[in-house]
Amino acid sequence: MAPLVANYYLTYRCNARCHFCNIWALEPPKEADFATIQHNLQDLRRLGVKYVDFTGGEPLLRQDVTEIYAEAKKQGFTTSMTTNTILYPKKAKEMKGLVDFLNFSLDGADAETHDHSRGVKIFDTLVESVKIAHSLGEYPVLNHTVTAQNYDRISEVGELGKQLGARVWLNPAFTAHDNYNSKKNPTVEMVAAIEDAAKKYNNVGYNKAALAFIEAGGNDTKNPRCKAVDAVIAISPDDKLLLPCYHFAQAGVSIDGKLYDLYRKSEEVEKYRQSQGKLAVCEGCTVWCYLIPSFFMGVDKYWWLNQVTYAGEFLARKRFLQRA
Question: Phi/psi at 86 (nearest 5 deg)?
Fold first, then answer.
């Protein structure tokens, strides 16, 4: 089966100062030029990838971001972007129609909460960005990470989404490395709060497979559900294939224009393919950007819950676009 998704890190630079992430404090590597990204996209198509999530850092900091997205659409990819919205008002018109799944990061339903978490005053920019996106016929989703600190305030986020006419997507904070403010799987209280909010607000959604996986304790290295290498191709800004994934990268292999052969024939890739989900760092993992694509591989209850989730989201998106 072909890999489903490419998590393509365009940059590690960021213009926010979020307290739960230190990527903005790191020394950013030299970033690959457009020609390199273009060639990698061609190889991703050859490998069968259909969906590319251009991420970061803040992807809109790339001066050639519009050119990159235009190339991805030209090659037939479905694209996504998550942005903190600082640059979105400036870039919105030129990005129109290039991002299939547009996500705006939201940490709180008011300026004080959101700006404190982000380390910069951007709540008003986020609200403005939703309005601009709607005026351009775009479908922005407010991407809200649910943590032990904010799960009791989810209803406020649901209300904000209603006021802005935007869908809210609830992401449980995942277990990852020190860049993230979560050392343990989300608690049962957080799970209950997410489920209750989705029942109360018809504009609030979450991944049902993700919550079921939390309740099961996350990835079990003795019976791994993660297919990080098979399902996802992770590429760093400096043109390296990250193995087995970005968050628990044990190796970064230089691509140098050979992504297709590297992914298909490299002994290094095969080593991590055989050990995906089985490494010590994989125990209890709930990193959704790798696990959710993994749930599409292998039919079990997570596969079914994933299908139900995205069928529901497709209908919600369709209804919104019909009203717009």
Answer: -55, -45
Distance CA 184, CA 172 (A): 11
The fraction of the chain above a pLDDT of 70, given in percent, is: 93
Q: What is the 3-state secondary structure (H, E, C) of 160-220?
A: HHHHHCCEEEEEECCCCCCCCCCCCCCCHHHHHHHHHHHHHCCCEEECHHHHHHHHCCCCC
**Residue 157 in tokens:** 């986020």
Instruction: Give the separation between CA 132 and CA 136, rounded to whole angstroms.
Output: 6
Predicted confidence band at 210 (pLDDT cuts at 50, 70, 90)?
Answer: very high
Measured distance between the N- and C-terminal CA atoms of the chain, rounded to whole angstroms: 37
Distance in angstroms (rounded) separating the CA atoms of residues 198 and 308: 14
Q: How far apart are CA 317 and CA 169, in angstroms?
A: 12
Contact 293, 4 (CB under 8 A): yes
> Tokens for 126?
């986020």
Joined tokens for residue 66: 């519009």
Q: How confident is the model at residue 25 (pLDDT cuts 50, 70, 90)?
A: low
> Helix 301-323 vs helix 208-215: angle between axes, to the nearest 10 degrees?
150
Q: Is the peptide bond before 3 cis (omega within 30 degrees of 0)?
A: no
Pairing of strands 78-83, 51-55: parallel
Q: What is the mean pLDDT of the chain?
A: 91
* DSSP labels, 54-103: EESS-GGGSTTHHHHHHHHHHTT-EEEEEE-SSSHHHHHHHHTTT-SEEE
Query: Rounded distance, CA 212 to CA 228, Å?
Result: 19
